[in-house]
Predict the structure.
Amino acid sequence: MLERIAGNRVHYAWFVVVATFVTLITTAGFRATPAVLIVPLQQEYGWSRATISVAVALGLVTFGLGAPFSAALMERFGVRRVMLVALVVIATGASLTTLISTPWQLDLLWGVVVGSATGAVSVPLAATVANRWFDKRRGLVTGLLTASNASGQLVFLPSLAWLASTYGWRAASLAVSAVAVAIVLPIVALVVRDRPQAIGLQPYGAEEETPVPPRPKRPFRPAINGLRLGVRNRNFWLLAGSFFVCGASTNGLIGTHMIPAAHDHGMSAVSGATLLAVIGVFDMVGTVASGWLTDRLDPRLLLFWYYGLRGLSLLALPYAFRSPHAGLVAFAVFYGLDWVATVPPTVALTADTFGRERVGVVFGWIFASHQFGAAFAAWAAGATRSWTGDYQTAFFVAGGICLVASALVMRISLPSRPRRWGPAAVPAEAAAV
């Protein structure tokens, strides 16, 4: 039915974008749930924040490692099938979390099970959908889907925090499971298709027929080959290194510890989660705008400004806590515009360097570096809080490494025949991812 409607009125690619948007924004909220569980788990079991942060860090690592292999599995078994299996695993892991009684069970369920499953429906999925379904507007679509992935982990936090505060943290875990099975899974099953060619279409904006590559017989070989291809290229290391900093300064630090930090300053969990929600709303604006800009400007310059401004905002955060109203709101707006605006230009530079057919797998490894950075910061910030009694050192260090990343991205080299940036940039082969 949807294919028939799309054939007459609008390209079916936009239906796939909507379904992917819903999937990414909700599963990102699932992934961020441990942020609202830190204080309740500490109060119920007496576990330290450092102990709980191990589970969060482990989840970020498995989330990151799942990304390149999920991209490879999508090549072998199809996008829809991988998404459906991931949603079932997320629902199962979140439900079983309500039965935990020891830290290792939290590590296993939120760290390994939910972490690896959410890795299958993350930023590399956005890159895969954008490159398979769009020849034009790829930068815009990448920005939109990336924003949904990042904002979801923030926008739903107030609701999850309210559930945890009112009905207990187990209610938040059960809500995650219910939404995954009852809402997101049916949407994916009904709408998502693997490629436009599967329903007799070509990618949006394509001016000639786009060939479909054969499915690999060995699903993990493309992931390993993508890593081998990347490590021989200096651009890969610069992109992976800067993305390590990106993960450390977003998901690892702010995404995980903003609510506990707010609690340390006398704010409720709901108030802290609301601040993250404000960051998520403005992230949506900033990342979509970044996708639009990536289609028109040198991505290196965009990354230079994004990392530099993020570093300055993190350096100012300890002082913003001293003005919990105007100061924190200003931080949330300014920092939110830059939360993951780095993704569209990073995807574009990956595609320019390694080609559109390899961008999903190679970017998956770059994204894994992002999650290693997030995992390190999640653990290090929790440990710093346990050792020093506050998060100020963690905020200052994160701000400093962002300024270093701002300088490093300008050393990324462009391909021998770079894209022409500007309002009249050539579409199709010259367009950004």
User: Anything to note?
Assistant: The first helix runs from residue 2 to 8. The chain has one domain: 2-195+225-414. The domain at 2-195+225-414 is CATH 1.20.1250.20 (Growth Hormone; Chain: A;).
